[in-house]
Amino acid sequence: MNSEVTTDMKARTFKRHLREGSKNIFRNGWMTFASVASVTTTLILVGVFLVIMLNLNEMAEKVEEDVQIRAFIDLAANQEDIDSLKKEITNIPEVSTIEFSSKEEELKNLMSSLGADGDMMAMVNQDNPLNDAFIIKTEDPLDTFDVASKVESLDHVSSTEYGDQVIQKLFTFNEYARYIGIGLITALVLTAAFLISNTIKITIMARSTEIGIMKLVGATNGFIRWPFFIEGLLMGILGSIIPIIFVVSGYYYLFENMKDKTFVPFFELIPFNPFVWQVSLILLGIGAFIGVWGSIMSVRKFLKV
Amino acid sequence: MIELRDVRKTYHNGVTALQGIDVNIQQGEFVYVVGPSGAGKSTFIRLMYREVKPSSGDVVINGHNLAEIKEKEIPHLRRGIGVVYQDFKLLPSLTVYENVSFALEVIEDSPKKIRRKVMDVLDLVNLKNKARFKPDELSGGEQQRVSIARAIVNNPHLMIADEPTGNLDPDTSWEIMKIFEEVNARGTTVIMATHSKDIVNTLKKRVIAIEHGRVVRDEQRGDYGYES
């Protein structure tokens, strides 16, 4: 008896597994079709979700970089007050940077942001109505709201201003969308894997005599399992073809139609290349994962010696 | 080479199929296992290739204790053992040739070796001219010869047969027994569970009789000992 366990697989053997695995795909046509269709549905949703989420994330990141709080200083405050205020703000733990901006600088900013109209403001240059301000950035942009209200409650601060409510809403929306999306996708992935494992179960039962003989003549469990892994893998990969085509063409269409229309500031789609291919790769990966996982679930139970 | 020491087998449902089994079988022996239905013959036979794991005691085959063998060593144990069943267990969609080569393919023998070994063994069981037939185109005796070919194609040191003539008429049974004797003559140990009084009483070999899960008789050139 040869008790040495060979683990390396010969090319011939691998070809055999590939052949057996793909044969099974055609043997139980309708079950395979149902499994592949469920992977397809899952992955289309995953694809759409991914594209939306990644774009929202990208957008949020861009906005986050710009999020800063302007704390306007009371006109009555003297230099001493300003210095102690600065200290107080710096002591807020969430604050990362603080910068003083004189009212002259504030005016310049305002004028440049207004473009051509800003030139008219030159007239008021003599009599600047603006306040001095601190420009504050927070460690985590999500703390913006909290920090702003803390700063506003301090002495010598007349008012604060930060990004907008839009930002807050974007953050919340982003977060909810993420949770709902992940929940939905998890449920779909489970369903698809379950369907695949059922399909493979049928293959295994149909081939129980064959498996029995394989065991009898000394085939290793690994050898017996491989075709089923491949069957699951193939189903997963087949299921990812349509979603990939859908995402690639859909995003191409969207991107081509929107790239010149920047009707909302900072709303810009992530460039088609290589983003779409990365998403495609993720879809392929999830498809393969669903397939292999589904096959492991059924094979493990059935092939106990 | 086969040694059973105080073997007991109790199944999950609480039925004790075998107990107090002490048996030694030398390499090259031919042994009949006889006894009434349900006496434990099948369990006894299935212990040898680890289809059944003993509840206690040792089953030692060629120095390997099957009571302690690791799961992943079992396939390698079985490569040295050929098993033949009453119902042949052939794959209906494969030809005679493929049914036999299957046994070598799944243990990853090389194609060249497979071709040579399969043709040799089909010659031995006299089925070379029916290599391309499907099992359902063959008689019962021919199908059993295919299953014997599959069992011995890897040149096992031990051949186990569970009522191999159970489904066959007397003439065909003798053909099968002739092949068994040939296999045995090549040095392979043969252990055969049988209900055939004729065979046991005519082709005299060692007889182990099992009743109620115990060995009640073990004699060289023994008789069947039961009314058929």
Automatic annotation (TrEMBL), chain B:
Keyword Membrane: yes
Function text: Part of the ABC transporter FtsEX involved in cellular division.
Species this protein is from: Salinibacillus aidingensis
Keyword Disulfide bond: no
Subunit annotation: Homodimer. Forms a membrane-associated complex with FtsX.
Keywords: ATP-binding, Cell cycle, Cell division, Cell membrane, Membrane, Nucleotide-binding
Family, per entry: Belongs to the ABC transporter superfamily.
GO MF annotation list: ATP binding
Gene it is expressed from: ftsE
Name the record gives this protein: Cell division ATP-binding protein FtsE
A Gene Ontology BP annotation from the UniProt entry: cell division
Residues of the ABC transporter domain: 2-228
NCBIfam families assigned: FtsE
Membrane topology: Peripheral membrane protein
Taxonomic superkingdom: Bacteria
Subcellular location: Cell membrane
Family matches, as Pfam families: ABC_tran
